[in-house]
Structure formats: C-alpha cells, structure tokens
C-alpha cells in the first residue's frame, strides 16, 4: 500500500554540510527508483534515479545508494545549500507502469 | 518550457459540483499518471494510462474518473467533490515503464 504520514520527518543541516536522506521501500520486486525534490506549491522535480542492477549512482552534488538486501535507499547531498531546502521523496516502480512514492523527508538548511 | 502543463493552477469548486482538471504534455510519452497529494503527505497514485490502457488503483474512490482522448491530453473528473477531496492534484508522464516521470506544477483544488 501507499506510505502516508501526517508529519513529515525533518532533517536540519547547516549550510555546507553533507545531508543524508533515507528511504525504506517495501516491494522487493521494485527495480527502478527515483529521488524527487518538491518545493512548496510545486510539482516534484527529478533529482536522480537508479536501477536495481546498481548499488550506487552519482550526479552533480548528489549520490544515491541502493541496498537491496535491506530494501533501503539513501540520497546524499554534498555541501548542502539553502536552495536544497525542500521535501524529498523516494519513488519506486517494479516491472509495471506504477510509480509509488514513499514517505517524504523535509530538509531544512540553516546558515 | 513546461513539458507537462496542468490547468488551472488553482481551482475552487462547490461541494458536490462536478469539476474537471486537465493535463497536457509535449513529450509524446506513453504513460500518464494522476496523483492526489494532501498536505505533508506523499503523492498518492489514483490511476494511470499506458497509452490507452487505463489502470485504476484499487482504493481510488468511484467519484474519481479519468479520460485520455489522445496522447497529449488527460483529464481528471471528480463527479461530486467532497470536502475531503481538497488537495493538490499532480499529473505526470513517463516515456515507458521504469523511466523517469515528469511532473506538472499541479492543480490545487479547494472545495467550498
């Protein structure tokens, strides 16, 4: 089923520090994962993706790690900036069209 | 340039009055999704199309329906909106299974 929560977990980091946002997924058949960033009042924005045949993928300032054994996904943001403040969602899909979102994490960056 | 366009950005409707939200895409993607997102929650999948094949989620209320007259357009119809249907409605597209989904900016629905 869907992951829902009335209160988003919040991660507070200082500008310039690295951030690590975690996500646990439930479907062991999921083979494609995406991290999205959502700013207030806007639609989710793609950050980075990873397929199940990989355990790590790097982008610009971001790294996604996938641990299939424990069904865990993480997003690492290097040198976090104020513009990174947003809600971050992981999403998963198995060999179907469905893209299912996990519970988000609010990232707050303070000076 | 926006690739997934949702209109309107804000919609106010009366309790019980049918309302339609629209989504268009310039990407020529096969898959189109509709999500409902309430405050501080994850987007919840309502249904999706793969081309013309419609896939309804088991827990999507009958009050919600969708139409996809062609590749570019998809509509969300709420037949009798209730106060609990107030939410952000997000449209997304992806080229095919297991590929990046692109989101529109959403339509915020208020029911009065």
Amino-to-carboxy terminus distance of chain B: 33 Å
Computed CA radius of gyration of chain B, to the nearest angstrom: 13 Å
Q: Name the biggest interface.
A: A-B, 33 and 29 residues
Total strand count of chain B, please? 11
Could you report the average pLDDT of chain A, rounded to the nearest whole number?
91
Question: What is the H/E order of chain A?
Answer: EEEEEEEEEE
Mass-distribution shape of chain B: globular
**Which parts of chain A are unreliable, with pLDDT below 50 for 5 consecutive residues or more?**
1-6
Oligomeric description of these chains:
heterodimer
Write the element-wise H/E pattern of chain B from the N-terminal end onward.
Answer: EEEEEEEEEEE
Helical fraction of chain B equals: under 10%
Content-based structural category of chain A: mainly beta
Rounded average pLDDT of chain B: 95
Structure description:
The complex is a heterodimer of chains A (111) and B (112). Chain A has no helices and 10 strands. Chain A is mainly β and 111 residues long. In chain A, strands 1, 3, 4, 8, 9 and 10 form a 6-stranded mixed sheet that branches. In chain A, strand 6 and strand 7 form a beta hairpin. Mean pLDDT of chain A is 91; it is low at 1-6. Chain B has strands at 4-7, 10-13, 19-25, 31-37, 44-50, 53-56, 64-67, 73-78, 87-94, 101-103, 107-111. In chain B, the strands form 2 sheets. In chain B, strands 2, 4, 5, 6, 9, 10 and 11 form a 7-stranded mixed sheet that branches. In chain B, a hairpin with a 5-residue loop joins strand 7 and strand 8 (73-78). Chain B is globular, with a radius of gyration of 13 Å. The interface between A and B is medium-sized, with 33 and 29 residues.
């Amino acid at each position: 089923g869907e992951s829902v929560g009335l209160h988003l977990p919040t991660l507070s980091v200082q500008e310039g520090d690295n951030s690590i946002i975690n996500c646990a997924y439930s479907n062991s058949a999921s083979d494609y994962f995406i991290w999205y960033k959502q700013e207030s009042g806007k639609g989710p924005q793609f950050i980075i993706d990873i397929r199940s045949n990989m355990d790590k993928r790097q982008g610009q300032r971001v790294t996604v790690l996938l641990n299939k054994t424990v069904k865990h996904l993480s997003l690492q943001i290097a040198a976090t900036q104020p513009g990174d403040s947003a809600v971050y969602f992981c999403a998963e899909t198995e060999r179907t069209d469905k893209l299912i979102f996990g519970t988000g994490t609010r990232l707050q960056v303070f000076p | 340039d926006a690739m997934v366009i949702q209109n309107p950005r804000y919609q106010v409707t009366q309790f019980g009055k049918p309302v339609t939200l629209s989504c268009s895409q310039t990407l020529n993607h096969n898959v189109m999704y509709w999500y409902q997102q309430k405050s501080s929650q994850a987007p919840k999948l309502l249904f999706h199309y793969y081309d013309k094949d419609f896939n309804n989620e088991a827990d999507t209320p009958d009050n919600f329906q969708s139409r996809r007259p062609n590749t570019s357009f998809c509509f969300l119809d709420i037949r009798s909106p209730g106060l609990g249907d107030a939410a952000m409605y997000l449209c997304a597209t992806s080229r095919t299974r297991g590929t990046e989904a692109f989101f529109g900016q959403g339509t915020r629905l208020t029911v009065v």
